[in-house]
Amino acid sequence: MQILRNEAYFLVYAAVTKYAAQRCIWTFYKVAMLKIKNINTYYGQAQALTNVSLHLSEGEIVTLIGANGAGKTTLLNSLSGIVPPQSGQIFFHDTPINNLAPHQIVRLGISQVAEGRQVFKPFSVDDNLELGAYLKQKFLSGKDKVKKNKEFVYDLFPILRERKKQLAGTLSGGEQQMLAIGRALMANPKLLLLDEPSMGLAPMVTQEIFRVIENFSREEKTTILLVEQNARAALKMAHRGYVLENGRMILEGMAAELLENKDVQRAYLGKDKKEIWER
């Protein structure tokens, strides 16, 4: 009876607020994969990030929103070793990665899809995917694993299979974004960093890419840190979110909470703003 009474108390507590039960689930049942503690990143003498901290649990989709110049891309570049922080700590599965080179970070299981669909334009779609698996092929797996990964990417993005011999530079913007994502997936990442995947794309193409990202994360249990200008769509897909402003983390919470936050709505969503596919 005491156990039943305790369970009843818990259920009552969880019902007190709309998100209490959701918070309890993420707090007690998810394992922290990535921990960032008070990192400070500079470009020369200019400080881009100031005492930034965040964490990601295994299997989460977490979005990072903020205005242009807030430091979102810098944070991803600090994680991937492109612009290492000068101070603070970054742990991936409790392993410090602050001082590792980018290729070492990729080998641990972190892949980044850079902003601007940076594909190798003179190379074919197939060759671009092969390049994404370079470290796996050279150090870890082999041709059979690479071939299997390539088929997996082609199943995710069937249009790429049709274009496999086509030069990457002749693809449409949406197809180049799919290729950039597919190339990152060739490394079998445990953590995928996505930088503005919808930039410059038509709404229907954006919707399709977001659908693939969400399904991939759910089915493969891959953790995703998403930087996205379309804050509304990103928060609808994510479990949690962070708001970055002038290089400082000013807000964090469950994605549903941030969608309802008046300050977030005013600054990043726009009052009464709806996406084209929601009208």
Describe the protein.
The longest helix is centred in the C-terminal third of the chain and has 18 residues, at 203-220. The chain has helices at 2-16, 20-29, 72-79, 102-108, 125-132, 134-140, 143-156, 158-162, 173-185, 203-220, 231-237, 255-260, 262-269; strands spanning 32-43, 46-57, 61-65, 87-92, 95-96, 110-113, 191-195, 223-227, 240-245, 248-254. The strands form 2 sheets. The chain has a 6-stranded mixed sheet, with helices on both faces. It has a domain at 1-27. The radius of gyration is 20 Å and the shape is globular. The chain is built from 13 helices and 10 strands. Helix content is 45%, strand content 23%. With 279 residues, the protein is of the alpha/beta class. The model is unreliable at 8-29 and 272-279 (pLDDT under 50).
